[in-house]
Amino acid sequence: MKRKNMLIILVLLIFFSIGTQAFGENNDNNQIYFLSINRLAFEDFQEVSNLKFLGEEGSLGLMNTRGTNGYYGSESFLTINSSSKAYANDLSVEFVYSESTDEIINESINSIYKLNENNGYSPKIGYLGNELKNNSKRSALFADNTLDEENLLYSGLIGMDSNGIISEGIIDNLTIKDANYPFKKKMDYKKLLSESINSNADFKIIDIGDLERLYRYGNNYSEDEYLQKRKNILNDIDIFIEELLKNVDFKKSTLIITSPNATDTIIDKNKLSPILFYGREIPKGELLSNTTNRNGIIANIDLAPTILNLLGIDSTGSIGKIVSFDDDIDKSIEEKIIEKNKIYTVSSVRYKSLLYYGICSIIILVLILLVKIARIRLSMNFKNIMRILLEMILLMPTLYLITSIFQPTNSRNYIGLILLLLVVSIIVLYVLRRINMNKKLLIFSSFNIIILLLDLILKGQISQFSVLSHDPIIGARYYGMGNEMVGILLASIAILLKQLKILGINKNVNILILMTGLFFIASPKLGANVGGSLALLVTLIFYFLLEKEIEIDIKKILIIAVTGIAILGIIAIIDIKFNTNTTHLGNTILSIKDEGLSLIIQIIFRKLLMNIKLIGRSFWTFVLLTSLLVFSGGIYYNEIYDSDLLKVTIAIIIGALAGFLLNDSGLILSAFCMNLLAAEHILMGSEKIEEK
Description:
Number of helices: 24
Mean pLDDT: 87
């Protein structure tokens, strides 16, 4: 009898064990649940209970969502699954379910390749999907983003391979009718949960489309109605996440939640979207990525290598970096929101701040040139005003750097801070108006050089909230010295070299200063700005030739070109062999190795095209042309100009123009450099004429 009872108990245990596994059959495996909630805002992690729990217990940060052209639409989704920035449009998204193979296939995959034929980033389409397939891992898509008649299955672009194939999934009948929801549809959350957790796939893309439907239907609601509908949807999502956490063991699996597109602009105009990692081996802490080199911010191209790494797959072949997690940094969600607002503030005031600086510089320089041409005699008061205005052209970039220290959290604070610094600077310059100009320029240039190089060593900690620094939202460059600051550095070095010449310092010291600047800008450990390095290298070579009075001919120009290429090659080798965080230069060389020399032509074409676009529509074109005009006029109308100082000026001008030609946004570098030099040149000339 006892044996019979024991047998019954054993059978019951086996039965209930099987029953338990039926709902989460593969929960013991290392699976990744990728929750795509398009238009999710960072603030939602503060308001929605289960999102808040995950944000406090996992690693929550910000993600740059930019594809090739923008932050919205299908290209952001495709870029997640590509080796670099990619482009797609609605016509290239046509996923269908194949009954014969149970696969999901994008029938418009060929149009994606056509759209990316001239993509200078040369992305490998379906990179993540291919690596999963090559390592016997299965991907699955659970999505139903039907609007009226169209089904925008953007999330399929995240998991497909290079043939447009996803291993399994469901792409219809995951919504139910509900008149209270946009397009009278809402997700069938019970079915979505059941289907996704019962899947044996290793990488599961779960697309919750309700917020996207609301965003597209938003014009049909008042603001209050919109916010209430959004609150209702977030409540549904909250319940879904709660059930997901109950039914999946995230000690063994990983949960990723993000909005692949920029967030809902009605809630937050910041184009950085939230990104959360939670579960297996994910600590409570801060996201880190060598792509951005900035705590708490990653790029969408980092997701593919990170997902592969979480599944134990090698991730070579992508320019994205594996995301790591720093459990020593424990910021609250509120603190992270404040950080996000600081980034947005700088980004939102960036263009106008630099525009007004450029316009004021043009007006000041042109007025002063006209005074010189007309040979108008000015009173001492007017001369002092002119001098202060020119000094403000030199000082303004420094003030932009100082604002970063105060980290303004909104536009109003930023504007108030800038106005205060302007007033204080003008008062100080007026009080110090009788101090010798050479001393002022020596102090100014030395301070700028020290602060810029120190900022480079500290990985942008000084300038990170300055309009002159990198903008994580734009995402063109995240670390190293940007072109704006390279232009300021180049001009500051030129001014310092002139002052050292006036003081009679050995000319070899000037060469050493140029070499030091080149070392910092070219160093792979510090970000290696290639265009800036070439600008400084050309300056160094031409300054050396002019100082040694060596005649410049075609042969020497060719030697300079070969030398430049050789130095770049050496920097690239150091970058690839010894730098764990490979820079753009190292990544480019590796890409050329994989894809051939045709990539060089694509890169050159892209850089030329970018400069042509900037020349045609950027106000920096007018700043550069005005500076060159004033510079030329200053030399012509200046009765006394030291020919020895002219050597420095010529070398710097050639270097600045080289930076313009050899950089995809070199116009900004050249314009900043020449603008500062034009102001300094007029100040120096006026000082000499008065001394005479």
